[in-house]
Amino acid sequence: MNKQGIGTKCVQAGYTPGNGEPRQIPIIQSTTFKYDTSEHMGKLFDLEESGYFYTRLQNPTNDMVAAKIAALEGGTAAMLTSSGQAANFYAVFNIATCGDHVVASSTIYGGTYNLFHVTMRKMGVDFTFVSPDCTPEELDAAFRPNTKAVFGETIANPALTVLDIEKFARAAHAHGVPLIVDNTFATPVNCRPFEWGADIVTHSTTKYMDGHGAGVGGAIVDSGKFDWMAHADKFPGLTTPDDSYHGVTYAEKFGLGGAFITKCTAQLMRDFGSIQSPQNAFILNLGLESLHVRMPRHCENGLAVAQFLKGHPKISFVIYPGLEGDKYHAMAEKYMPNGTCGVVSFGFKGGRSAAEAFMKHLRLGAIETHVADARTCCLHPASATHRQMNDDELAAAGITPDLVRMSCGLEDSADLIADIAQALEKI
Ligand SMILES: *Cc1c(COP(=O)(O)O)cnc(C)c1O
Q1: What distance in Å separates the CA atoms of residue 105 and residue 150, rounded to the nearest whole number?
Q2: The domain 15-286: what is its CATH number?
């Protein structure tokens, strides 16, 4: 199975129908499952036997789609969540709780930054943010005795910095903790972080995996490579009995390949309940079936738009890791030789007012708080997601007042460029 190409996995992994069974994955639209005896159900509750009993914990449709995502990333186990936010929260909180500390890249998605910097701090988890460009020495200095994980994004949203996965993995492993990588923008079609040393991968499936702006969702995948027992004192949640789950010790009972996701499901999903609906999992799977066909087109359009903008007299800068001359081009070539993503950021010589005017004149590119959709969309962070910041605060966040983020969809690149050209003419 692992020998198959990524495209075959996109189309077929996770579900193999038997004779006379539905060709498409069935939507098991049921909250619960029926058993003949209470003894049998008791075994399920004790995690003695695997089986479904309540959709908050597990649902067959979700499991088929999670199995496909695990296959795509080359992991041993995966779970779906209701959103990317829930995926990142669970992935971190599964191993870092009150009194613990996490090292994270400073350019991560704003929603994840808030989750870490504000909400998880209130829960007693502390974070140190480091530049993705930090030296190994600077990275090393960010660790503390209570550090439990390192976190970064393959391609950051919207900063478009590229994570040096090997550098971050080396530092994490030298300190006996796993590297968690949010692989939303690259997708496993363009980068598989496990092949570079990452231990856990997360996704906002809302973006390219769904790809049609149809369903909010998330996923967590375990590589099965991190040895919790070798660092047993750091991860008591995995290496000592869970009193809230009949005294099970996850790392012993479920091994390297299953401990992380089983604990995350049995504890965090049980208690927080951020499940993906089976209906949304079905929609997500439709997106996954064409992910390998769509990603090259997103990248082709992103590159064409970036190259056009780069040469335009009204444009002051273009950020696109796939573009030659970009600060992260060499890093992108190493980790994503087949392409990066469809998102391009750029600025205007005419400043903020030119950016706002440009967006008004676009006909194909709609103004939306979204990325990674089949339809091209764009956002002016200074008047939307980062609206509450003044120009100084924007600069600190790496966002200039004239910056526009454009997510190139699946349209013809000639039409996208013509649309951009006519909008630029009017400013
Ligand atoms: C959108 C996004 C998230 C949050 O995902 P939701 O599905 O919106 O909750 C997390 N990480 C990255 C990189 C994202 O782009």
Answers
A1: 8
A2: 3.40.640.10
